[in-house]
Amino acid sequence: MANIQSVLLADLPETFVTRRIPEAALEFGGIKGDRHFGITSKADSRQPMYPRGTEILNRRQITIVSEEDLAQIARELEIEKVLPEWLGANLLVKGYPELTKLTLGSRILFPSGAGLICMGENMPCTLPGEEIQKHYEHHAKLATRFVKAGYKRRGIVCAVERPGIIHETDEVQILVNDYSNPMQ
């Protein structure tokens, strides 16, 4: 079990930075109005097996980070804190410190019946590092240092498996896919 600490939305076209909202309606495709909303997306550098721009399944409908991982990143960067907004996260969870290590196919279930399926680790890049740098101008090279600090701590990307309402106070159930149970 884990608790949702924040629900966030990236609804400004000029930035990936999210803002906190009290609840959201998950639809097939993510959260309507979010920059990553959609059942499909265009292949980019994260999918080198396809030509850029090829329409593929959107594995990045929802991004989730944990308070525990963010605290570890901040310690490694020697800064006070890293906020989920700066990483473009849609959900901040507490109580599941190994979130980024969730296996492909693991599920996150909400009290409303909504469900997410883990599509893998959200690989760190310099863009969130640049956002962190804006808040800590006197710390050198945070943009590039974030890539190393965020490795295996950057959270996960998910797709909506079952629509429903999610709230910032929800307690969620996490079902880990151990690959030995084909019914998960």
Give an overview of the whole structure.
With 184 residues, this protein is an alpha+beta fold. The protein is built from three helices and 13 strands; from the N terminus they run E-E-E-E-E-E-E-H-E-E-E-H-H-E-E-E. It has a seven-stranded mixed beta barrel with strand order 1-8-7-11-10-9-13. Strands 4-3-12 form a three-stranded antiparallel sheet, with no helix packed on it. The radius of gyration is 16 Å and the shape is globular. The model has no long low-confidence stretch (mean pLDDT 94).
Shape: globular
**Estimated structural class:** alpha+beta
Element string (H = helix, E = strand): EEEEEEEHEEEHHEEE
Helix content: 10-25%
Could you tell me the strand content as a percent range? 25-35%
Task: Give the count of helical stretches.
Answer: 3
**Total number of β-strand segments?**
13
Q: Indicate the radius of gyration in whole angstroms.
A: 16 Å
Low-pLDDT residue intervals, each spanning 5 or more residues: none
Please, what is the average pLDDT?
Answer: 94
Give the distance, in angstroms, between the N- and C-terminal Cα atoms. 17 Å
Oligomer: single chain
Across the major sheet, the strand order is 1-8-7-11-10-9-13
User: How is the main sheet built?
Assistant: 7 strands, mixed, barrel
Write a brief caption for the model:
The chain has 184 residues and is α+β, with helices and mostly antiparallel strands. It has helices at residues 67-77, 126-135, 142-150; strands at 2-9, 19-21, 23-27, 30-31, 40-42, 55-57, 62-66, 91-94, 107-109, 115-121, 156-162, 164-167, 171-175. The protein has three helices and 13 strands, in the order βββββββαβββααβββ.
